[in-house]
Amino acid sequence: MLLKVEDLHVSVGGKELLKGINIELDRRQVIAIMGHNASGKSTLALTLAGFPQYTVTSGRILFEGEDVTNKSIDERARAGIALAFQSPPSIRGIKLGHAISLAGGVNPWRPKKGDDTDLPIKMLAKVNLDPVSYLDRELNVGFSGGERKRSELAQIFAMKPKMMILDEPDSGVDIDSLKVLGNSLKDYFNEVDCSIMIITHHRHILQYIRPQEVLIMAGGKIALTGSYEDLMPKIESIGYEKLIREAKGSV
């Protein structure tokens, strides 16, 4: 078991946002976290990544058997947890190529003997961004939505994480970028030992990298779980709320 979330309760500013979340993620598994707006999906992602404003009031987060509930963002990143933001930030003064090197543990200004100084070029190639055009550009400054997502994915690939948490990777991207993102994720997953948690509203990105399990959130809880093949047609046909009501009524 790579990740185990046990009865997780999380509050922000005294307001409880997650109310008893239980999740298990195996090695080399893909799961999708779905649900309507304000259901707790992004709160879950940021909590798992270790953002301090999300206070765990009870429950535990275990990663590779170790309790990381009180670990910092940096400690979790070093352990192998990587988060892709819903809206990757722009940072002036930092070149994209340098950001990729740093993500991969390479000092771009003072590389050590044996460091892979070509890492940025390799990672940009994986997300179909031309190194000549993008290496020296400021991080995400002036980038389109799709370019931002691809830039961030290149940085995450450089980290070689054990678990990727992707917060709405298909949000704000056009069809061409979605195809690149989806195929890049699929190729990466097939190449390395990595698990993926995808947070999304719809099936767009899931058509490229199919989850073994879908978890539907509502009101800060996991309201329903099932296979992609079973739940996705129902989600698209009747929506989240009716699907959850029908599931509760059948219990």
Automatic annotation (TrEMBL):
The keyword Nucleotide-binding applies. CDD domains: ABC_FeS_Assembly. Gene3D superfamilies: P-loop containing nucleotide triphosphate hydrolases. SUPFAM superfamilies: P-loop containing nucleoside triphosphate hydrolases. It comes from the Archaea. The keyword Nucleotide-binding applies. Keywords: ATP-binding, Nucleotide-binding. It holds the Pfam family ABC_tran. One of its GO terms (molecular function) is ATP binding. InterPro entries: AAA+_ATPase (IPR003593), ABC_transporter-like_ATP-bd (IPR003439), FeS-cluster_ATPase_SufC (IPR010230), P-loop_NTPase (IPR027417). Residues 3-244 form the ABC transporter domain. PANTHER family: ABC TRANSPORTER I FAMILY MEMBER 6, CHLOROPLASTIC. This is Fe-S cluster assembly ATPase SufC. The gene is sufC.
